[in-house]
Design goal:
Blueprint: H1 19-22, H2 30-39, H3 41-61, E1 66-78, H4 95-106, H5 109-118, E2 123-128, E3 133-135, E4 142-148, E5 157-162, E6 167-174, E7 177-184, E8 188-190, E9 194-200, E10 212-217, H6 220-230, E11 231-237, E12 242-249, H7 252-310, H8 315-351, H9 368-390, H10 396-481, E13 482-490, H11 503-528, H12 535-541, E14 546-551, H13 572-585, E15 594-600, H14 607-619, E16 625-629, H15 637-640, H16 650-654, H17 660-663, E17 664-666, E18 672-675, H18 684-689, H19 691-703, E19 706-710, H20 719-724, E20 729-735, H21 741-753, E21 760-766, E22 792-796, E23 801-805, H22 808-815
Parallel strand pairs: 14-21, 15-19, 15-20, 16-18, 16-19, 20-21
Antiparallel strand pairs: 1-12, 1-13, 2-3, 2-10, 4-9, 5-6, 5-10, 6-7, 8-9, 11-12, 17-18, 22-23
Helix pairs in contact: 2-11, 3-11, 5-6, 5-7, 7-10, 8-10, 9-10, 13-14
Membrane topology: Multi-pass membrane protein
Region (Disordered): 1-20
Domain AAA: 594-724
């Protein structure tokens, strides 16, 4: 494979398209799911146990609710047809209205008050259990007779501890103070808030003296709320007029008694109410008829007063007459104003010395005395003018004349003032009359409107009166022809099983919730699982061939550098290494001197463990093998052979301080030697790149059939990659349930970018459940009936896909 086969577009630098990397949901791995499922099995059991335990605790800690049910049939028999009336609109004859009306009646506060008044529900008695509180309905060991002085004590808890047959403790809160008093049964307990007398009942038992109880005195509001919340009334069959009455309570006896009481009270109540129903309607109609009659009488009084006050019943005729009167008054005023103007002119003439011509004022009806005075005044004025020409103004004759003129002027002026006053009085009278006519004229339209409005209202009230009389007659007939008849189809049942909590349902929900949470848990673990778990999963994402899988060894996690195959020659792990050895023969057939590097991405993947045991298994095939520890930063090879990393080793050989012969150490296993790392150098990468390292490898190849190089992890330093380029067979170790998938992608990158065409993988520490058996029960290898075919491939740029190739020989023949 060369660089032209690389597919590095869209960020894919691994040389192939990986669906698992780009879309973890696009390719479901069944093996991985099974693996996650098996590993999560204890957690699934725990989740199911928790959910079912919660279901059990919920049932244990939840008060049981019982429901008592009864069924009623509502029959409305209408006998109005016997009177010859068939079409009266009685809503009770309609099934839906009948049923819904009765349901609302039963659920009404009025009905609840009747139930409270009849039943003995004023005090509730409770017993404190270990987990739940139980109501001692009709079975309380004591009874409280009370008289409350303060209503604030309603709905409050009074704790009562029975000490013995004679004494008890009463505990209650009063404000911020906790009262705890000891009393005797039958004793009168009186405070500012209540009076109590507590007596034992026949239900008292000696062993109950250690129990603790409490009681509450219920208010009507609390009882109504209690009945409303727990009572259910619903129709069963509208066509049959049947309803169901159900009541829920924690005490099954109380639930049954309440349903029985509601049925009985309802039947009695409805018998009375049905008799009163039409009477109420008729009473209402009588009130409306009486009110309507009063309104009609008020309208009649209005019409009578209107006729008396306005002297007419025709407002339009009065309007015409008023207009005529106004015109007459205006004409009279005009004549008087003309006369007043003439009399004013006459007065001006009198005040002057001019001669007054009475004939010039024909419209004035001047009295004879005034006319005589005016004539005499005219004569004196003329004489005085003649006398003035002969006499001086201060002569006695002239003065006498002038005095006579002044006197007559005064008389005439007085008489004119009388006339003028009369004219003014008449004008004012006419003006007042006109104002009255105008006012009356303006009020006539509104009076007409008021009259017409009252006339319409009168007609409407008259129609209402007739309609009310008709309805009254109809309801009187309906009252005579209708009777209620209710039948109890099923009396109140005594429930044996609670309706809540439903044990089967709760446990079912617990089981389903456990399964859902388990599936969610498995799904999350599946999505978050980014480690190699099985050989099949490794085959799917790896380009490199897989030499084999090494089963999990119980001590491997603690001692990764252990030599184990010499102690267990027939164990499965030894057979797995033999299978790896066999597979390696196909990679470089007929090649005697081979250099193998063993590396991993990070530490703790088991590369040293693989190096040691792989070297040992090869040595068992009569080949001389040396294991070289070139992990100069963290050497571990010497631990496998219980030796110390002395001051001699690879690092001292590379600096020409020691010879190879001085540093090689023999093991207890025949044909197997090892070369320790030696002292840690400051420049391990430079030593690996040196010619001395190449010379070291060549010298070892001359002395041994197989040289195994234990390299540093390639994901941490570059030393391992440098070594891998110089060996015949680089081996990469992947540890199951430890190595991440991203490590495999990096290995694929090494194969593609660095042309490590001969790189192979070993899956280490795989659990038996994800581990195909080898031959003889383990099944790895090629041919020989092992039943395993490795999966590897390369990216074909022409076909734009990953091409799988089976068989190591084909892989190496294609690349070489």
């Amino acid at each position: 494979m060369n660089d032209k086969n690389l597919n590095i577009e869209n960020g894919n630098s691994y040389g192939y398209e990986s669906k698992e990397e780009s879309n973890p949901l696009g390719n479901i791995d069944i093996d991985k799911i099974l693996s996650v499922l098996k590993r999560s099995f204890p957690w699934i059991i725990l989740i199911l146990a928790i959910t079912n335990t919660l279901a059990y605790l919920y049932i244990r800690w939840t008060p049981e609710v019982y429901e008592s049910v009864s069924e009623l049939k509502l029959e409305i028999e209408n006998e109005a047809s016997l009177f010859g009336f068939n079409n009266f609109p009685d809503p009770q004859n309609q099934n839906f209205n009948t049923v819904s009306g009765e349901i609302e009646l039963i659920r009404s506060k009025l009905f609840f008050n009747k139930v409270i008044g009849i039943l003995d529900l004023d005090i509730n008695y409770y017993f404190y259990g270990n987990i739940l509180v139980n109501e001692r309905y009709k079975r309380s060991p004591f009874k409280v007779n009370y008289n409350l002085k303060n209503t604030s004590m309603l709905d409050k808890k009074f704790d009562l501890e029975i000490i013995d047959r004679e004494r008890f403790n009463l505990i209650y809160a009063q404000g911020n103070e906790q009262i705890n008093e000891s009393h005797r049964f039958g004793e009168k307990i009186e405070t500012d808030h209540f009076i109590f007398v507590v007596n034992l009942t026949r239900y008292f038992q000696e062993n109950e003296s250690e129990g603790r109880y409490y009681f509450t005195i219920n208010s009507d509001r609390a009882l109504i709320s209690y009945l409303s919340e727990n009572l259910t009334v619903e129709p069963l069959n509208l066509n049959a007029n049947t309803i169901k009455i159900a009541f829920k309570d924690n005490n099954r006896l109380k639930a049954r008694d309440l349903v029985n009481a509601i049925d009985t009270i309802y039947l009695n109540y409805t018998q009375e109410q049905k008799k009163l129903a039409n009477k109420k309607r008729i009473e209402f109609l009588n009130e409306q008829i009486e009110s309507t009659i009063k309104k009609l009488e008020s309208f009649e009084n209005f019409f009578e007063n209107f006729t008396i006050n306005n002297k007419t019943t025709s407002v339009q005729g009065d309007l015409n007459k008023t207009i005529e009167f106004i015109n007459v008054v205006d004409s009279q005023r005009f004549v008087l104003e003309q006369k007043r103007e003439k009399i004013n002119n006459l007065h001006q003439y009198v005040l002057s010395d001019s001669v007054i011509e009475v004939s010039q004022l024909p419209i004035l009806e001047i009295p004879k005395a005034l006319k005589d005075n005016i004539d005499e005044l005219n004569k004196l004025i003329i004489d005085n003018k003649l006398l003035r020409s002969s006499y001086k103004p201060n002569t006695q004759a002239y003065k006498i004349k002038q005095q006579r003129i002044d006197y007559l002027k005064g008389e005439v002026t007085n008489m004119i003032e009388v006339f003028r006053k009369n004219y003014n009085d008449e004008l004012n009278s006419l003006y007042t009359r006109k104002l009255e006519l105008l006012k009356n004229f303006e009020s006539l339209p509104s009076k007409g409107t008021e009259f017409n409005k009252n006339k319409r209202a009168f007609d409407l009230e008259e129609q209402v009166y007739l309609s009310l009389q008709q309805k009254k007659t109809e309801f009187e007939i309906a009252e005579a022809g209708t009777k209620p008849d209710f039948v109890i189809l099923s009396s109140a049942s005594l429930p044996h099983e609670p309706i809540y909590p439903n044990h089967l349902l709760v446990y079912g929900i617990g089981a389903v919730a456990g399964l859902i949470l388990s599936l969610f848990f498995i799904g999350v673990k599946y999505l978050l699982h980014n480690k190699i778990t099985s050989q099949i999963e490794l085959e799917k994402i790896s380009l490199a061939p897989i030499l084999g899988a090494i089963p999990y060894y119980k001590d491997a996690d603690l001692h990764l550098s252990n030599l184990v195959i010499d102690k267990n020659p027939k164990a499965g792990i030894t057979e797995a290494f033999r299978s790896v050895r066999t597979n390696m023969e196909f990679l470089r057939p007929n090649q005697k001197n081979r250099v193998i590097s063993v590396s991993s991405t990070i530490s703790s993947e088991g590369k040293t463990f693989i190096s040691i045991n792989l070297g040992a298994i090869i040595a068992m095939s009569n080949l001389r093998v040396i294991i070289v520890d070139i992990d100069l930063r963290n050497p571990n090879i010497h631990h496998a052979f219980d030796e110390k990393n002395t001051t001699r080793g690879v690092s001292t050989i590379l600096i020409n301080k020691n010879s190879i012969e001085d540093c090689i150490r023999n093991t207890d296993l025949e044909n197997l030697d090892f070369l320790a790392a030696g002292p840690k150098p400051p420049n391990p990468a430079e030593l690996i790149l040196s010619d001395e390292f190449d010379q070291l490898v060549n010298d070892l190849k001359d002395q041994y059939d197989v040289v195994i190089l234990d390299t540093p992890p390639v994901g941490l330093v570059t030393d391992g990659i440098l070594v891998m380029k110089k060996v015949d067979l680089p081996i990469f170790v992947v540890r199951a349930d430890y190595s991440k998938k991203s490590f495999i992608y990096n290995i694929n990158r090494l194969v593609s970018v660095n042309n490590f065409n001969n790189l192979s993988l070993i899956l280490n520490s795989i659990k038996s459940s994800r581990y195909h058996g080898y031959g003889y029960g383990y099944g790895y290898g090629y041919g020989y009936g092992y039943g395993y075919k490795p999966n590897y491939g390369y990216y074909d740029e022409d076909k734009k896909k990953k091409v799988k190739v089976s068989g190591f020989a084909n892989f190496f023949s294609r690349n070489n």
